[in-house]
Amino acid sequence: MGAVSLELDVGNSALKWRLMSESGRLQGGRVASSPAALGLLLDELSLENLTDIKVASVGSVERDEPLMHILAASGVPVKLAVSQAFCRGVRNSYGDTSRMGVDRWLAMVAAFGVCGSACVVVDAGTALTIDIVDGGGMHQGGYIIPGVAMSARALAEHTGRVRFDGADKQSLAPGKDTESCVHHGKWLAQYGAVQAAITLAEATQGSLEVFVTGGDAQGLMVVAGEYARHWQYCEELVLDGLAPVLASC
């Protein structure tokens, strides 16, 4: 099999992982973003061929400490990605690059590496993030918005009479009961934000590529319908940026 790397994208809700060799992706998946789930994953995987573990995490130092302890105990060298000022043609717009979530940075580097042109990068997860990169690789800025689950939870926690349950309904149709109003409304907010961001980006950048990733990306594309026909769904976009960013650190 040769040298193998374990790549980890540690998000707020899920931990995405994959094994990579020189020939490409071997296997992967997602588990809960918790020390217990990570420990079980490492127990299930064969670590004897691992050359390193590459990690991107959006968590705080305090939250990540138990995870990093488990990784260190594996005996395999661990490499932690951070946001940079420049990588693979992409230039960060943040004055303090440490303030940018590394998942956003990796996704932008990966997306620009694919298209080499102006693009919008959408990560629909716990939070909805939207970032714009121009044709020269300059990050033009972005947006951070509560994701679908967070939006619904905010209504449940901060309103007295908006009560709902039941399965998620991926639709933009006006709701005719409180449950459908909430579920359709949260998707309308996501779709409306992405559509507005793309329209604003097109006004300054012209034609551009749209890359979509994250746990709710496919739901977003369902409600976007025909509008999303040219979007590129990249399930592992953050992981795709991990090796390039670490190689340039």
UniProtKB/TrEMBL annotation:
CDD domains: ASKHA_NBD_PanK-III. The keyword Transferase applies. Its cofactor is K(+); NH4(+). It is found in: Cytoplasm. GO terms for cellular component: cytoplasm. Keywords: ATP-binding, Coenzyme A biosynthesis, Cytoplasm, Kinase, Metal-binding, Nucleotide-binding, Potassium, Transferase. Gene3D superfamilies: 3.30.420.40. ATP binds at D9, V10, G11, N12, S13, A14, L15, K16, T126. The keyword Kinase applies. It is an enzyme of class 2 (transferase). Its main location: cytoplasm. Its EC number is 2.7.1.33. Pfam families: Pan_kinase (PF03309). Substrate binds at Y94, G101, V102, D103, R104, T178. K(+) binds at D123. The active site is at D103 (proton acceptor). A monovalent cation. Ammonium or potassium. InterPro entries: ATPase_NBD (IPR043129), Type_III_PanK (IPR004619). One of its GO terms (biological process) is coenzyme A biosynthetic process. Pathway: Cofactor biosynthesis; coenzyme A biosynthesis; CoA from (R)-pantothenate: step 1/5. Homodimer. This is Type III pantothenate kinase. It comes from Zhongshania antarctica.
